[in-house]
Amino acid sequence: MKPAFVLHEHHKPRHHFDLRLEAGGVLRSWALPKGVPSDSRRNRLAVAVPDHALDHLRYEDADKSIADIGWWEDEGGTERRLLFTLHGRESSVRYALIRTDRDWLLHRTKQQPT
Predict the structure, then answer these.
(1) In this structure, is residue 79 part of a structural domain?
(2) What is the DSSP letter of 86?
(3) Could you report the per-residue pLDDT of 48-63, keeping only the tens digit for each?
(4) What is the rounded distance in angstroms from the CA atom of residue 46 to the CA atom of residue 99?
(5) Which residue from 34, 24, 37 is spatially nearest to 93, judged by alpha carbons?
(6) Burial 61-80 (b: 16+ CB within 10 A, else e)
(7) Of 17, 19, 22, 80, whose Cβ has the fewest other Cβ atoms within 10 Å?
């Protein structure tokens, strides 16, 4: 079975998104205060937050909705960089999570799946 991902959109306390990737029986999670990057020229801050249980994959409430959901493909990486493709409802997009000294950056790669 392919590992799942979900992109949650939060409306409170401040508008932001959470990226969650299934790995090791949990959802590894990053808060994205400004959402996902729309092109390779703009990186977005990604703040690692505590892992969530897998039952959070389809969780929604009055302040949280699912912006996208599907499966993700690990395309390699190192301790400081994770390269992956999100295969969502309407498209597939390749990203890299890059570890900085304090947080992470989410980068949309120039080379995209065809």
Answers:
(1) yes
(2) E
(3) 999 999 999 999 999 9
(4) 9
(5) 37
(6) eeeeeebbbbbbeeeeeeee
(7) 80
62 assigned to some structural domain: yes
Place of tokens 């120039």: 110
Q: Which residues contact 49 (CB under 8 A, 6 or more apart)?
A: 18, 29, 30, 31
Domain residues for 90?
4-108
Angle CA(43)–CA(47)–CA(50) in degrees, nearest 5?
A: 150
| Structural domain contains residue 86 | yes
Cα–Cα separations (whole angstroms), residue 97 to 7, 14, 108: 15, 23, 9
- Say what the pTM is: 0.94
Number of domains in the chain: 1
Where do we find the tokens 């990057």? 37
Q: Would you call 113 helix, strand, or coil by DSSP?
A: coil
Q: Give the pLDDT confidence of 31-45 residue by residue, as tens digits.
A: 999 999 999 999 999
